[in-house]
Design brief:
- By secondary structure, the protein is of the alpha/beta class.
- It has one domain.
- Strands 1-4-5-6-8-7 form a six-stranded mixed sheet.
Length: 275
């Protein structure tokens, strides 16, 4: 068949199918950074390309996005388009943040990214919020960024993302077969250019991260369990019961049941493009 770039019957499709097609055409893997030390205008996400195709496509993109304006003296129309079902919310530099209203971003996000080395800061705070159910109600996966890579050939990993979003980077999931194939294809191409890019081995990265993460999660589950038991414990004290609640082990049925509520934690790479 010839390479067909125009589908003429598209306008005759039912509106529900057209909207699904527009939504499927949205880019994936863009990174919306939240960080105290980075100016807002440097981490906003621009409207995706399909938002400029027609009124209908823009409406679909806007309906799926958290569109929030932060006008500055230089740009009165400064705003971000964060699409929770496609983009990734990167939490860095001291979560939670003193923003006026970050909750819409937290509620919409289906994927988070955190620096894998920060087990005493952001990771612990996010795990605590996930256990307590205070926010991140839609999150399905949390990427633990093991390494940050900068390359001028960034578009080879996410060709559907525009140059405007290149500086924000993209996440490569070390547990995802498509992303692993992208890495393998990039390495094969790089060899033809006499380059030797080095990427961390998934098994080695995952083993170290999983051991530290599991320990942290059990600690936070125990903290949560003690908080829930505090009222009954106070009542027990008045009845001369001298034994405080003992820490629960990882194999405890209650911890195993609660663990199922958490999203999937995966090792990942953050790939940034050169400006």
């Amino acid at each position: 068949m010839p390479n067909i770039s125009v589908f003429l019957p598209f306008p005759r499709l039912p509106i529900e199918i057209r909207r699904l097609i527009w939504a499927h055409a949205l880019p994936r893997g863009r990174v919306q950074l939240f960080a105290k030390s980075v100016p807002w205008e440097d981490w906003r996400l621009h409207p995706p390309l399909i938002a400029h195709v027609c009124h209908e496509s823009r409406e679909v993109a806007r309906d799926l996005a958290v569109v929030r304006g932060f006008p500055t003296a230089r740009d009165k129309h400064n705003e971000t388009w964060f699409i929770g079902s496609r983009d990734i919310l990167e939490l860095a530099s001291g979560y939670p943040y003193p923003l006026s209203n970050p909750e819409p971003f937290f509620a919409a996000a289906e994927a988070l990214a955190i620096n894998a080395g920060d087990f005493r800061g952001d990771i612990r705070a996010v795990v605590r919020d996930l256990i307590g159910g205070t926010r991140f109600h839609s999150v399905k996966v949390v990427y633990l960024v093991a390494e940050q890579i900068s390359t001028a050939y960034w578009p080879r990993f996410r060709p559907d993302i525009t140059d405007k979003d290149k500086g924000k980077g993209t996440i490569l999931d070390l547990c995802d077969s498509d992303d692993l194939q992208s890495i393998a294809a990039y390495k094969a191409w790089a060899r033809t250019q006499e380059m030797s890019p080095v990427f961390p081995n998934r098994e080695e990265v995952e083993m170290v991260l999983r051991a530290a993460l599991d320990e942290l999660i059990v600690e936070e589950f125990n903290t949560y369990w003690h908080c829930m038991a505090s009222e009954s414990w106070d009542a027990a004290v008045t009845q001369d019961v001298s034994q405080p609640p003992q820490p629960l082990h990882r194999d405890d049925p209650w911890i195993q049941q609660q663990w199922k509520r958490l999203p999937d934690f995966r090792p990942a790479l953050l790939v940034l493009g050169w400006s």
